[in-house]
Amino acid sequence: MIDSQTIKFAKAKGGYVDQVPVELFTDPAFVMERKYDGCRYRMVIEDGGHVILQSRRVSKKTGKFVEKQDRVPQLVGSGYPTYAGTVIEGEVVVSPDACTSKDVVSIMGCDTEKAIVRQKENGWLHWVLFDVLFECGVDIRGLPESERRERLDDILYDLRRGDELVAKYWHLSDRYEIGDGISSHMETYEWLINEGFEGGMLKDTQAPYGKGWYKVKQVTEVDVICTGFTQGKGKYEGLIGAVKFGILNKHGALIEMGQAGGMSDDVRKEMTKHGHYMIGDPLEVLCQEVCRKKEWYSLRHPRFSRWREDLSYSDCTAEKLERELK
C-alpha cells in the first residue's frame, strides 16, 4: 500500500504575471492551464478502493496531512477498487465555472455535519482533476506531464462510464495550447482574466511531476500608507517581517488594510534600520484582488513593491482606489 503521508505536494514557481519568465509565454512545450480558485486536495485510493482526501495542511496533533473525505461523500462515493493504489491531485471547487477559495473553506473547514448541511442548502462541491501521481500502485511522477495527463483522462473516462457521482462531480481541468489561433499563452492568460477567472498555470508538458510549473495571476497596484511593521521570524529574526499599511477613507481617517512582505533582503534591512522614519510614507503594494465591504478594504495576497516618493500622504485615498478600479 502507498504511504501517501510521505508524498510531498509540489509547489509552483512564479505567482504574479510579472514574475514569470517572459519566454515561457511563447514556448510551445508549455500549456496554459486554467487556475481554479478553490482548495487543492489529493485523492488517495487505498487497497479495497477506500478513498481518502488529503489537504496540504499538516495536523499539529498528528503530524500528518489532514483528511477531509467525510465532508464530501459525493466526491469519494463508495470507493473505486479497480484503481486501488492511485493518487490524484485536483482542486475542490463550488463550481467548475465560478468559485472562490473562501466558499470552499466555509464548507471544508467546518465539521462533517455542518459541511453536509451547507452543501444541501447551497449546492454540492465539485472536484477538478489536474494530475495523477500513482496509477494502480505504480509511481508515474517521473513521466512527462503530457503522458500523465493522458492517463488521467483515461481514468476519468473509465470511472465516469460506471459511476453517476463521478460523471456529475468530477471534471478535467481546462488547458490551452499554442496553435489554432492562439499565438501565445499571454493571449490565453488575458482571456482568462477578462472572463473573471483567477489566472492560469503554465506547465511544461515534458517535465516530471512538480517541475516546470508556474502560477500566472493578475497583478493590481495599490497606493497605500505605511502604518508600521511586524517583526520577522525564522530566517528574518531580528529584521522587519512585513510592512503594515492602510488607506484614507472618505472622512480622511486612516483605516488599516493589512500587511505585506515580499521585499528584497536589502530593502528589508533598510526598513529595519530606518523604519521609524517611514511610518506615514506612501508605498505601492501589488495584490491579486481588492476586496471591499462598505467602507472597509482588504487586499488578496499583497506583496511589497516600492516606496512612492512621488506621492504624499493625502494621495492614498479610498476615492483614488475606487477610480483606478473602474
Radius of gyration: 22 Å
**Poorly predicted parts:** none
Strand content: 25-35%
Protein structure class: alpha+beta
Per CATH, what is the topology of the largest domain?
A: D-amino Acid Aminotransferase, Chain A, domain 1
Query: How many domains comprise the coordinates?
Result: 2
Largest sheet: 7 strands, mixed
CATH architecture of the largest domain: 2-Layer Sandwich
The level of helicity is 10-25%
How many β-strands, per DSSP?
19
Distance between the termini: 54 Å
What kind of assembly state do the chains in view correspond to? single chain
Overall pLDDT score: 90
The count of helical stretches stands at 8
- Relevant CATH superfamily of the largest domain: DNA ligase/mRNA capping enzyme
How would the global form be characterised?
globular
The CATH class name of the largest domain reads Alpha Beta
Secondary-structure element sequence? EEEEEHEHHEEHHEEHEEEEEHEEEEH
How would you describe what is shown here?
- The model has no long low-confidence stretch (mean pLDDT 90).
- The longest helix is centred in the middle third of the chain and has 18 residues, at 145-162.
- This protein is 24% helix and 34% strand.
- The N and C termini lie far apart (54 Å).
- The chain has 326 residues and is α+β, with helices and mostly antiparallel strands.
- It folds into two domains: 4-217, DNA ligase/mRNA capping enzyme (D-amino Acid Aminotransferase, Chain A, domain 1); 220-325, OB fold (Dihydrolipoamide Acetyltransferase, E2P), CATH 2.40.50.140.
- The strands form four sheets. Strands 3, 4, 5, 6, 7, 8 and 9 form a seven-stranded mixed β-sheet that branches.
